[in-house]
Amino acid sequence: MSENGTGESAAAERETLRLGGMALRNGLLIHGPTHWAAAARAKSGEIEVASGPKPVLAPNLTAKIPLLRGPLRLAEAFAVIPIVRTKLRSARLPFEDPRVLAAMLAASAASRAIRNGGSTATRELAQGVLGLAPAMVALGNRDLAAYHGAEHKAIGAYEAGSDDAAAATKEHDRCGSNLVAPMMLMSAAGQLILEKTVDEPGAVARSAVGLASASLAVEMFAWSDRNRGTAAARAFHRPGHEIQRLIATKEPTPEQLEVGVSALREILRVETDADAGGPQGPGIA
């Protein structure tokens, strides 16, 4: 993302929160360090907003352990989803679509069918591709892909110290799409090494290797974010950027971007109030 001189100086004058998010079918969910915020366009046309504290699944000390902190953070992010759906009734989740549910069932059945066939690496890569099928079906909905773009533009503009979200790029280095290729490759390599070193590995061993592979991919993701200017980080991000550019994001309409900015403003409000120890209110507007 490009930054002008004004944006750089503004960003330097304040502490920039590390934000993440998830596109909804009619809005956006944003994660902050301690809270979440979501905004959705209701059927009436109004923008509805909700927020609240994030669930914590493990003590801070445990969450800082390499190879464990990544999965814990992902689990905490997923734990927010049912809370959002309860507090923001107008929100529509990505998988609230019969086609996505059908894709999930079909991918699961196909994955079971190929589990015992072919070489380990080929089987793991095939299962990884099948695991992406529901997400690809969901992103066939233009609104979801556009809200994904709105997420990146709103957060990217904030990180650049700019108020012009429309001018920000719809691709972002911290998008989960950057994990797709590393996780698939790490999983295939891990299972191949397991079969070369252990005779007839069982389900527990395979699950442990799968978890370790995912954890290693998350650590690589975190490293690339801390070292964005390096050639290795740019190479790590390239597949994810292409996925975002070609498939996962669309340019949002002004109305969709307005929803994204509303979610951004709400997360900044609740995080600022929490940091100052002030009243946060019910978190619903």
Characterization of the model:
This protein is of the alpha+beta class and 285 residues long. The N terminus and C terminus are likely disordered. It is globular and about 60 Å long. It contains ten helices and four strands; from the N terminus they run αββββααααααααα. Helix 4 packs antiparallel against helix 5, helix 5 runs antiparallel to helix 7 and helix 8 packs across helix 9. The chain has a four-stranded antiparallel β-sheet with strand order 1-2-3-4, sandwiched between helices. The chain has a domain of 126 residues.
What features would you highlight for this structure?
disordered C terminus; 8% strand; globular; alpha+beta; disordered N terminus; 285 residues
